[in-house]
């Protein structure tokens, strides 16, 4: 009799366990301010580029820089043989001295003729000739002074200097090369890398939609000086230094329908090099009351649409079609189909079918995700 009673109790327990609704992990969605972030393709570009060129013709006798090193504006990079220019300077200085001597003589002669004409010992024509000779001598001195200045400038150009501060590339000419003969020979290139630019493009249609969202109030506009721009390198790592948006182009490329934007980033360690491919994350607005669900909560139906399981007040789970937007911090933004306070199933799909009774429990990661979103919002404000 005792054995029979124990068997009945065991069967009752098993039946009770079997009848208990399956336990599923759910989150209760609430509107949370989230940034509207777009990730766009871009290229790194230097803030300044200067091609170092020979401005006078001659033989390179010395290269004074180390390839790939940092240089300052005004640093001597090459020396061109100065012998010819030193001779030219000496010749122009001698011509200037001769012109000055002729000026002194013409000035004295004009003064003498002026005294003579007052005593009527010289004619008016002689006086006018003396004055003209004196003025011609003055003009000749000015011309010779310009020749000297030009010769000094040419001599100074034998020291090829860096026009800007930055990093210099490889040497394009070596000692012994004839440069500047008939053209301004390209000797090297200097690029300023700190700060550095990232040029990226966005479809003009997206910018128009963004403007309409601002006007309708769907998104809150960010102050220009508060716009956040970040770089994602080609290996997927995020560049640690945030940048700032400099400008958006005023014209659309007719061949691509894209608008060019430019961001500026600090580059203290020269980690970013011109020409490198990057992805640029730009925060273009704030969705003040966005709804989002974890990616694993969203399922695809046979027609390719998105749907989730929603636990209603009677703890029965039903399929709810939704319209999703983009992914932010691993969560799908929900554009349509859900309301604040809805309970969405995140775990335990295999335990039930649509319409069945479930035992909803908070999803373990729900509190962490909510806390993270709140912290991000606090930092932005």
Specify Rg, calculated over alpha carbons.
41 Å
Low-confidence stretches: 1-6, 366-381
Describe the global form. elongated
Task: Report the helical percentage.
Answer: 25-40%
Report the CATH architecture of the largest domain: Beta Barrel
- What is the CA-CA span between the terminal residues? 73 Å
List keywords for this structure.
conserved putative lor/sdh protein from methanococcus maripaludis s2 fold; alpha+beta; Elongation Factor Tu (Ef-tu), domain 3; disordered C terminus; 15-stranded mixed sheet; elongated; 5 helices; 381 residues; OB fold (Dihydrolipoamide Acetyltransferase, E2P)
Care to give the gist of this entry?
With 381 residues, the chain is of the alpha+beta class.
Question: Can you offer a commentary on this structure?
Answer:
- This protein is an alpha+beta fold and 381 residues long.
- The chain folds into 3 domains: 21-34 and 288-380, Beta Barrel (conserved putative lor/sdh protein from methanococcus maripaludis s2 fold); 37-46 and 192-287, Elongation Factor Tu (Ef-tu), domain 3 (Beta Barrel); 47-191, Beta Barrel (OB fold (Dihydrolipoamide Acetyltransferase, E2P)), CATH 2.40.50.
- It is 30% helix and 36% strand.
- The chain contains 5 helices and 19 strands.
- The strands form 2 sheets. It has a 15-stranded mixed beta sheet that branches. Strands 6-5-3-8 form a 4-stranded antiparallel beta sheet, with no helix packed on it.
- Strand 16 (317-328) and strand 17 (331-336) form a beta hairpin.
- Helix 2 (83-118) runs antiparallel to helix 3 (124-156).
- The radius of gyration is 41 Å and the shape is elongated.
């Amino acid at each position: 009799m005792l054995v029979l009673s124990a068997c009945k109790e065991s069967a009752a327990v098993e039946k009770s366990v079997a009848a208990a609704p399956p336990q599923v992990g759910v989150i209760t969605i609430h509107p949370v301010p989230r940034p509207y972030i777009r990730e766009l393709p871009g290229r790194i570009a230097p803030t300044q580029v200067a091609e170092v060129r020979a401005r006078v013709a001659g033989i390179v006798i010395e290269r004074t820089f180390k390839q790939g090193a940092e240089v300052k504006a005004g640093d001597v990079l090459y020396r061109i043989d100065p012998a010819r220019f030193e001779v030219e300077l000496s010749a122009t200085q001698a011509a200037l001295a001769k012109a000055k001597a002729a000026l002194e003589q013409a000035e004295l002669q004009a003064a003498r003729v002026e005294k003579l004409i007052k005593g009527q010992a010289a004619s008016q024509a002689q006086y006018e000739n003396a004055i003209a000779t004196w003025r011609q001598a003055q003009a000749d001195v000015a011309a010779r002074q310009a020749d000297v200045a030009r010769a000094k400038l040419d001599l100074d150009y034998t020291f090829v200097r860096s026009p800007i501060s930055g990093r210099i590339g490889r040497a394009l000419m070596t000692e012994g090369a004839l440069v500047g003969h008939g053209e301004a020979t390209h000797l090297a290139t200097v690029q300023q890398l700190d700060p550095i630019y990232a040029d990226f493009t966005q479809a003009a249609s997206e910018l128009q939609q963004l403007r309409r969202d601002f006007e309708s109030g769907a998104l809150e506009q960010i102050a220009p000086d508060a716009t956040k721009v970040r770089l994602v390198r080609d290996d997927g790592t995020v560049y640690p230094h945030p940048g700032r948006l400099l400008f958006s182009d005023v014209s659309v490329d007719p061949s691509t329908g894209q608008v060019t934007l430019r961001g500026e980033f600090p580059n203290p360690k020269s980690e970013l090099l011109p020409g490198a491919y990057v992805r640029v994350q730009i925060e273009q607005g704030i969705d003040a009351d966005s709804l989002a669900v974890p990616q694993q909560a969203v399922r695809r139906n046979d027609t390719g649409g998105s749907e989730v399981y929603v636990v209603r007040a009677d703890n029965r789970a039903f399929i709810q079609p939704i319209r999703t937007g983009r992914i932010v911090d691993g969560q799908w933004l929900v554009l349509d189909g859900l309301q604040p306070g809805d309970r969405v199933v995140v775990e335990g799909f295999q335990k039930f079918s649509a319409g069945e009774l479930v035992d909803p429990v908070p999803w373990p990661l729900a509190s962490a995700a909510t806390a993270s979103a709140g912290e991000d919002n606090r930092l932005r404000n």
